[in-house]
Amino acid sequence: MLDGVSRVILSANFHIKHDPVSDIVNYQLIGYTYSAVNVICSVPLSCPPLFLSANFWFPCCHLYRICCQPINSANVSGASSTASDDAVPQPVVLIDQDSDHDATIVQLSFGDRLGALLDTMKALKDLGLDVTKGSVATHSAVIETKFHIMRLGRKVEDPDMIEKIRLTIINNLLQYHPESSEKLAMGEVFGIKPPEEKVDVDVATHVIVQDDGPERSMLDIETADRPGLLLEITKIIADVNINVGSAEIDTEGLVAKDKFHVSYRGAKLDSTLSQVLVNCLRYYLRRPETDEDSY
């Protein structure tokens, strides 16, 4: 019963913690779905024995405190951004252009602090994009949220739009989880707290080209992240007359780790062209720091 109206609980998620000393099991209801509406809620609740695995049964539990509101990035699993005493996890934004032929896959994680990301989906829709499918999975206490995104019924292929997607997601993360600013390069300008550790662009920049079959090569780039980085990389690749077939754009905290399937006139890059591409990328990716130091 909620606000005098009976609701059918369709699904629920719990955090369960067992204290081996006192033998007390603590249950925490972190969210449930009723009438096709997602809420985060901690309400008086009596639940029957909860079957967790083939060997474990837990007794009846009672949860207290009433607090119901729509889920978004500000409302994290179990609590909002109140986990200030905990170490801030590393935010990861992955844009995958290779796994799905028809859609761009965006994967986002920030430890266990993300909710249903309704605000992020709205921001992507405001870019003229359609979120066709979504999923949430937990791996080693890290919640990974995936969106399948299309534009006009097709995969997003415009590098400018892909960079807008990346920056939009990071901006939303900074807005609803301000503690993430100390782990993101854009936290330097837009966050409440700049990163404590700075990435040395000369040390962090690695560019490798490897064969990936007779028709394409794999370009791996790792460098310090910054706004507009993807556009810089794609422009450099285009200036060398190399084609990009697909890409995986991975932002891990302060570092960008990107992969591109590239080719030249329908074939993999030869050793000479590979070296030209590597040298160009290394020069331009390291140049911003060099220019600043020269003044």
TrEMBL record:
Residue ranges of every copy of the ACT domain listed in the record: 218-295
Alphabetized InterPro entries for the sequence: ACR1-12, ACT_dom
Keyword list, A-Z: Repeat
Keyword Thylakoid: no
GO cellular component, one term: chloroplast stroma
A GO molecular function held by the record: amino acid binding
Function: Binds amino acids.
Protein name stated in the entry: ACT domain-containing protein ACR
Protein species of origin: Zizania palustris (Northern wild rice)
